[in-house]
Amino acid sequence: MQFNVTDEEYEILKQYAEGKNLSMAEILRDYIKTLRKHVIAG
After folding, report:
1. What is the pTM of this model?
2. Into how many domains does the chain fold?
3. Of 25, 26, 22, which is closest to residue 3 (Cα–Cα)?
4. Containing domain of residue 24, as a range?
5. Which DSSP category does 21 fall into?
């Protein structure tokens, strides 16, 4: 999957991931997992 983000969004994600010592992909996968409860409750 590919998608576009702004330079600012990229930097925010990069800094957040570095602060958590995780890859940016891991941060995004973890976030997507949190959406499940919203979809099911939908």
Report:
1. 0.77
2. 1
3. 25
4. 7-41
5. T
